[in-house]
What does this fold into?
Amino acid sequence: MYFTGKRESPSSNLPTSIIPGAIQTNVFRGGNAEHQYNYGRATDSLVVGDWNGDGNDTLGVCRGNTYHLKNTTTGGWADIVMTYGKSTDQVVIGDWDNNGTDTLGVYRP
Ligand SMILES: [Ca+2]
Ligand SMILES: [Ca+2]
It folds into this structure.
């Protein structure tokens, strides 16, 4: 999965070598991406949340009913891997208990 995006200021947790990758933006204007990285597979579904409660949203991917969540805007191994719900569920993300950490929910119509 390819991500590309913009940041208003550099972050210390950014990779030193930028790999073409996903979509992030902190600014509302066009132009070249300031941050790019690869994460997940082309067939994964994307989820976004603050998984560790540090105030920064980061990406995760859903593969069937297994979620691979990253706490940094880099590629590599997931920080959290969990299986939840059914592969046919629609995932919803939220801070359900207001503790600052986003977690998963599913919608099953
Ligand atoms: Ca976070
Ligand atoms: Ca929470």
In short: Residues 6-20 have pLDDT under 50 and may be disordered. Residues 50 and 57 are 4 Å apart (CA to CA). Strands lie at 2-5, 23-24, 35-38, 45-49, 58-63, 66-69, 80-83, 90-94, 103-107. The two ends are 27 Å apart (CA to CA).
